[in-house]
Amino acid sequence: xxxxxxxxxxxxxxxxxxxxxxxxxxxxxxxxxxxxxxxxxxxxxxxxxxxxxxxxxxxxxxxxxxxxxxxxxxxxxxxxxxxxxxxxxxxxxxxxxxxxxxxxxxxxxxxxxxxxxxxxxxxxxxxxxxxxxxxxxxxxxxxxxxxxxxxxxxxxxxxxxxxxxxxxxxxxxxxxxxxxxxxxxxxxxxxxxxxxxxxxxxxxxxxxxxxxxxxxxxxxxxxxxxxxxxxxxxxxxxxxxxxxxxxxxxxxxxxxxxxxxxxxxxxxxxxxxxxxxxxxxxxxxxxxxxxxxxxxxxxxxxxxxxxxxxxxxxxxxxxxxxxxxxxxxxxxxxxxxxxxxxxxxxxxxxxxxxxxxxxxxxxxxxxxxxxxxxxxxxxxxxxxxxxxxxxxxxxxxxxx
Length: 400
Description:
Blueprint: H1 5-32, E1 36-38, E2 44-46, E3 49-53, E4 55-56, E5 61-64, E6 67-71, E7 74-78, E8 81-88, E9 95-101, E10 106-108, E11 111-112, E12 119-122, E13 129-133, E14 139-144, E15 154-159, E16 173-177, E17 188-191, E18 197-201, E19 206-210, H2 227-246, H3 251-254, E20 265-267, E21 273-277, E22 282-283, E23 303-304, E24 308-313, E25 318-324, E26 329-333, E27 339-344, E28 347-352, E29 359-362, E30 371-373, E31 379-384, E32 393-398
Parallel strand pairs: 3-10, 4-11
Antiparallel strand pairs: 1-2, 3-7, 5-6, 5-8, 8-9, 12-32, 13-14, 14-15, 15-16, 17-18, 18-19, 20-21, 21-24, 22-23, 24-25, 26-27, 27-28, 28-29, 30-31, 31-32
C-alpha cells in the first residue's frame, strides 16, 4: 500500500519535530556547560568557563583586566584564561584577585566588601575596667568603677550572641554590684575552657563565679586554697576540647598542628576551613582529599614552617600561608565569612582565607588584647576612647 502525500507530510513533521527537540536539548546542555558560539573566528561551539560575580553589599562594579564589564550579582561566560578581577563600590575597600577560568567550571567570587570608614558606637558609657573575653568568644566580662550612681558600679557581662538588634544597642548586664570589701575594678578575669564560669583574681583573693548562679556577698568564697586543683581541672577540659577538634582532622594534619592552645586550631563557621599554627617544619602531602574541579588556583604553600599560621581548605585540599605568629596577633575567623581578622603592627586587619585582599579596617588607639568580632561578623568589639584623655569604653566598630 502506497503512503498518501498527507501521510508523508505528517511523518516529515514528526521527524522534524523530533530532530528539533533532540538538537535543541543537546544545544541547551552544551550551553549550560559553558559552551558558546564563536562567530568571530568561525570555529563553532567553544568551551568557556563561568565567573559568578557576587558581593556583599550588592551592586558593586566588576572589572575584568581593568575594564568595567558588569555589576554584581551577575554571571559571565569567559574563555579559559587568567584574569584580573576587581570589585569596587563607593564607601568600601576594593577587592581584587587574579583568577584562572577553567572550561566548564564556575568560579565564584563570594566577595565581602569592608567599609573604608568604620562606624564607631559606644557599648558602655561609664568605662570598662579589665575587660576579658570568654574562651568561646561569646561574652565579655568587665568591671565599672566610675558610674554616676554608686549602685551601678560592679561586675558586668555583655553577651555577644544574645540580641538580634545591632550590638551597640544591646545593654550590658550587671552580674553583681560592689560589695563591702569587694571592689570588682580591682579584679582581673579568667574564663574557664567551657566558658561556663570564670575566676576573678585580686592581689589577695581568688573567686570562682558561675554565669548560671546569682552572685551575692554570701555566695562569694575565696578559692585560693583550691586554685591549683581548679586549674588542673580546667587543663583537662582544655585537653578534651583540643582532642575533639583534632578528631575531625586526618592523621597527617594532626601531626602538623600545634595543640598548646585551643586558639591554635580554629574551624570556619561552615567547618570547611581550618586555621592552624604549625608546630614544626613539615611537608604537607598532596591530595589529602580528592579536590573538586573548582579547586582554588591561588598560590598555596604546602611546605610548613614552625610557628606560622596557615589555612587548610578541607574540601579543596589547598593550604595557604597567612603569616608568622610573631607577625599576627590573635587571628580569628570573622563569623559567617571566609575571612580572618587579626592585629598586625597595631592595626586591625582582615584577609581572605587564601591570603589575598589584606586590608586595614581600623587603625585607631585600642586595647590590642581585646579585639573580637560580633557573632554576625559585621562588627568588632574593642576597648578604646573617643579622644585623648576620655575614659576607655567598649566600642562596637562596624566594618561591613
